[in-house]
Specification:
Mean pLDDT: 86
Shape: flat
Radius of gyration: 24 Å
Number of domains: 2
Largest sheet: 8 strands, mixed
CATH topology of the largest domain: Alpha-Beta Plaits
Order of helices and strands: HHHHEHEEHEEEEEHHEEEHH
Length: 363
Amino acid sequence: MISDIKTQTIIQKSKLKSIKNSLNLDEKNKKISKLESQTTETNFWKNDQKAKAVMQELSLLKGEIETISSIENDIKELLEIISISQSESDEGLIKEITNNFNKIKKSIDDLEINSYLSGEFDNGSAILSIHSGQGGVEAMDWAEMLLRMYIKFCESKEDFSYKLIGETRGEEAGIKSATLFITGPYAFGKLKKEAGTHRLVRLSPFNADNLRQTSFALVEVLPHIKDDHSDIKISDEDIEWQFFKSGGAGGQNVNKVNTAVRLKHIPSGIVVESQAERRQEQNRKIALSLLKGKLWNIKEQEKLSTLRELKKQKTASWGTQIRSYVLHPYKMVKDLRTQVETSDTEAVLDGKINQFLNAQIKL
C-alpha cells in the first residue's frame, strides 16, 4: 500500500515538472517584476480601475508560483514520511499518507487545467449570458434552471464571485434572458466552452397531461475586455444610448431615475443593456464591456465562418446543442463534444459541472 503511494507520488512529481515547463515560469517572474515596478509609480492609484486590474493580475501570477512551490514542499514531505514509515499495518499512518497524496494530486490536477488556459483573456473575468430558446414557457423555466446552475457553481468556488447585471423575466415563469459578471482566476478560460445550446428533456411541469417536453437555452460566454485593449476600439459616433428606469431590485432609485442603460452599436446592430447598478455611469461601463466582448467574439468567430453563418449558429434549437440534460425517461447529462456523462443530474444542476469543464478544456 505505502509502496504504491510512493510510486504514484513520484509520478505526480514528474507530472508537476512537466506542468512547470509548460507554464513558462521565467516569463511569469519577469511579468511580476514589471507589474511590481508599476505599483511603485507615483500616479499608480490615480486610475483606480487600472490599478485594481494590475493588482489582480499580480496576485494571480504570484499565486500560481506560490502554489507550485507549496506542492513541491508537500511532495518532499510526503516522500520523507514514506521513507521513514516502518509498518504497513499502521492504519493511522496509512490514512495520513493517503490523504496527503490525494491533496497533492488534486492540486496538480487543478494546476494542469490552468496550464491549458493560455488565451489572451483566459485568466480574466467572464460575462455569461443565458437566453431561452425554442419551447416557450418551458424554455424560459429551463433558462432559469441554467442560471441557478451557474450561480451555484460560482458559490461553490472560494475564489469566484458573481453579479447579476441583467435579467428579463418571463411573463408566466422563468427568464427570457439573464447575464452574470463572473470574477475569479481563469473565469473566462474555464467557462468559455460552456457557450452553445443546452437541451433539456423532462416531463412538463406546465402541461396538465404531464407530457415529455424538449426545451432549449443558449449560453453565451464573453471575456471582460479592459478599456485600454488596442484591438477593440469603439467610436462615440457608432453608439446610440438610451436611458430608462430600472425594473429590478436596486433600492430607492428604482423606477424613479433613469439609471438603466441600453446601447446600440450602429455598424453591427448589436444591442446590450445593463440595469444592475444604482448609478447610470456604472451601468454605462458594464454595457460597454458587454459590447466589447461581443465584438471580440464576432472577430474570433469570423476566423472560422462569415458573420452570416455565425448568426445562424446563434439559434438555440435542434442540431446546435453542446450538452443534453435528460430527466425523463431516465436521468443523464451528456456533453456531446467530450462524451463525458453522468446520471447524477441533481448534482449537475446544483452547480457541480467541473467534470464537463475540465474535459472540454483538455480537448
